[in-house]
Amino acid sequence: MDLTTRQRANIGRRGDLPMPVVRALRKLGQDIRNARRRRRIPVAVAAERASISKTTWLKVEKGDPGVLTGTYAKVLFVLGLVDKVAQLAEAANDSVGLRLEEEQLPRRIRRKLRQPSGDE
User: Fold this and answer.
1) Which of 67, 54, 82 lies closest to 26 in space, CA to CA?
2) Nearest 5 degrees, angle CA 106-CA 104-CA 90?
3) pLDDT tens-digit profile of 18-73?
C-alpha cells in the first residue's frame, strides 16, 4: 500500500501518539535545551556540530515527534550525553520485564539423577 502525500505528512504528528509519549518527548526537548544552555552553546553552533539545520535543532528542543531518532542521538552526542541512549532499555532499568522474567523462574530446582552406567 502506497502512502499518499497527506498520509506521509501526518506520520509522527502528536495526534497519533499517546499523551505520555508526547510529554516524554517534550521533557526530553526541554532537557536538551537546558543542557545546551548550561554549556553556553549557541543554537547555530550546536546545530553545526550535529550537522543538522538550526530549524531541526529547535524542533528537537521542542520535542517534535517528527524528528528522526538518529537526530536526537546526534544532538545528545554533541552535548556529551549519548551514553544515556544505550541505557534506555537496559535490563537493569526494565522493572516490568524483570518481574515477568522472575515469575517464569522455577519454584523448585531438583538435582539431576545420575544415570546408572552399564560398565559394572
Assistant:
1) 67
2) 125
3) 999 999 999 999 999 999 999 999 999 999 999 999 999 999 999 999 999 999 99
Inter-axis angle of helices 69-78 and 19-38, to 10 degrees? 30
pLDDT in tens, 78-111: 999 999 888 888 888 888 888 888 888 777 777 8
31, three cell numbers? 532537557
Compute the distance between CA of residue 102 and CA of residue 65 in angstroms, rounded to an integer.
34
Burial 94-107, CB ≥16 within 10 A → b, else e: eeeeeeeeeeeeee
The Cα 92–Cα 85 span in angstroms is 14
